[in-house]
Amino acid sequence: MIRLPGKPSRKRVAVLILGGGATLIVVVFLLIYFVIFPTSSPKPFKLATSTATPATAASAASSASSASVSSGGVGGRWNVATGSQAGYRVREKLAFLPAQSDAVGRTSSITGAATLTESKGTITIATASFNVAVNTLKSDRSMRDEKIHEIGLESSRYPTATFVLAAPVRLTSSAVAGHVTRASVTGVFTIHGTSKKETLPVEFTLSGSALEAVGSITFPWGEFGMTAPSVGGFVNVTEKATMEFDLHLQRA
């Protein structure tokens, strides 16, 4: 005997309606988040490369000496100045598709200083320590900014990230002559209440009484005791995060 399919039960109909409604809500949310209001990500920090002709060792040393004399020497304390920024960069993605760009949050709430020494034309960063108020980070999405206070970075619980230089850094004479120079910097980062010694490449330029340093560090979330944040299970981030900075220091 062949049984003809009967009418679906009210319970099943209700489940289908609710399921369809939830799917519609998710689709609308993703449409708003990624299409109507797409993320506008600022580019990574980078020093402007000098357009001057690269100097020879002799001319660079001469330029460095002249800059040193004109500025009265570079040795001493250098404080964080206006223009400094630090923040995060992560790649957001849907459960099944990547996002169009990175999520970037930044703050200018940075304090700290470095001590420079000068000897026979060699400039050395002897000490440095910086504090970043990560609970003031802002991106192009207020919803994202609110979430990182409680998940991922948990900035309400860990409002400050710090860096302390662990080994002196020598700058080449080209940096003093106004050209970009690169050096490996080793220090202790404290993020999310966890401290790790890391070495990273940093770009420097020194002109008169202004020193600028740009760099970044990329790491798995778990390295600093964090869990990759997720918004409702629909908007996630990739397994690694980047912390980046552009420090402007001025002679005290």
Uncertain runs with pLDDT below 50, 5 residues or more? 13-17, 50-71
Query: How many structural domains can be distinguished in the coordinates?
Result: 2
How many beta-strand runs? 13
SS element count, helices: 4
Specify the CATH class of the largest domain. Mainly Beta
CATH level-two architecture of the largest domain: Beta Barrel
Helix percentage range: 10-25%
- Order of helix and strand elements from N to C terminus: HHEEEEEHEEHEEEEEE
- On the 0 to 100 scale, the average pLDDT is 80
General shape: elongated
N→C terminal distance = 96 Å
**Quaternary assembly:** single chain
Largest sheet: 8 strands, antiparallel, barrel
Order of strands side by side in the largest beta sheet?
A: 1-4-5-6-8-9-10-13
Task: Note the beta-strand portion.
Answer: 35-45%
Radius of gyration (CA) equals 25 Å
List the helices and strands and how they pair.
Elements: H1 10-36, H2 57-70, E1 76-80, E2 85-94, E3 98-107, E4 110-119, E5 122-133, H3 142-147, E6 160-165, E7 169-171, H4 173-176, E8 181-191, E9 194-207, E10 210-220, E11 230-231, E12 235-237, E13 240-251
Antiparallel strand pairs: 1-4, 1-13, 2-3, 2-12, 2-13, 4-5, 5-6, 5-7, 6-8, 8-9, 9-10, 10-13, 11-12
